[in-house]
Amino acid sequence: MAKVKIKYFGRLREPLDIREEEYEVKNSSLADLLIKYIPNRHSEITKELKEINFVTLEGGIVINKDGTLISAKYFILVNGLNRDLTYILKDGDEVVILPPIESGNCEDQDI
């Protein structure tokens, strides 16, 4: 059994009303944590969790060629590194869910 710490930042903190929490997982991947463990614990806001973490233009999860997650709205890091969704969580891992850096409105600018 691995004990994993999750730290939440940005808009995700508001509906959860917590900064961090721990999960005990057994032979679980990062994807299992994001789409099973967290929503199961926070069933009252499951819809919001899925929308915040997984909305893309096509309505699904986008993965880089190297297998790392591209979230439309949040970045997922494990121990400070962008990991493949199939990464098997280990005891002591720290998963951080960060909002993307937002820039100013570019509509009026020539790009």
Describe the protein in words.
This protein is globular. Residues 54-60 have low confidence and may be disordered. The longest helix is centred in the first third of the chain and has 12 residues, at 30-41. The chain has one domain: Beta-grasp domain (Ubiquitin-like (UB roll)), CATH 3.10.20.30. The protein is of the alpha+beta class. The strands form two sheets. The protein has a four-stranded mixed β-sheet with strand order 2-1-6-5, with no helix packed on it. It has helices spanning 13-16, 30-41, 46-54, and strands at 2-8, 20-25, 62-63, 69-70, 75-78, 94-98. It is 23% helix and 23% strand.
Count of strand segments? 6
What would the principal axes of the Cα set say about the shape? Answer: globular
CATH architecture call: Roll
The number of distinct structural domains comes to: 1
Helix-strand blueprint:
Layout lengths: L1 E7 L4 H4 L3 E6 L4 H12 L4 H9 L7 E2 L5 E2 L4 E4 L15 E5 L13
Parallel strand pairs: 1-6
Antiparallel strand pairs: 1-2, 3-4, 5-6
Helix pairs in contact: 2-3
